[in-house]
Amino acid sequence: MSTTLLAEIRVPYLRATISNKNDQGLRRAQSDATTIGDIxxxxxxxxxxxxxxxxxxxxxxEDCTPDYINDVKDSHCGNWVCGLCSEAVKDKLLRxxxxxxxxxxxxxxxxxxxxxxxxxxKLSLAWAMKDIAQRSSQQRASLxxxxxxxxxxxxRTSSCFPCIHQx
Length: 167
Description:
This protein has helices at 33-48, 66-75, 83-95, 103-117, 121-150, and strands at 4-11, 14-20, 26-31, 51-54, 61-64. By secondary structure, it is of the alpha+beta class. The protein has a domain at 52-117. It contains 5 helices and 5 strands. Helix content is 50%, strand content 17%. Residues 1-14 have low confidence and may be disordered.
């Protein structure tokens, strides 16, 4: 005997197929509630595995999965480094001559840099501008010393207007 599918009823969490086989009525019913429950359980398990981690260099915190945290730690000598600091470390490695510095030295160098400059950004900017001003004044002073020893200064002998007429 052949079975003919008359209807498929889809209700949230319940799917039933009605077939006409000697008028037995409902042949098969399958509940989707268990599969949806499994999906929700997986999402809850996934949500529980997110951890907050702090960057070794700048102190920035991020929420990451343990797998991502382990990948970053493996690629940065056991230290978790945020994305911005990671790019800075990569840039320093690329700029340094091959084999001259190790990854650990670069991470430590960047950590020291972050700790000295990012404590108070306003003070960091002020110190940076002060250093720039000192360097430029030292350069000007060294140029003046060099120029004074080589070329004598031209003294002003007379005014641009030799005589002013008073009426």
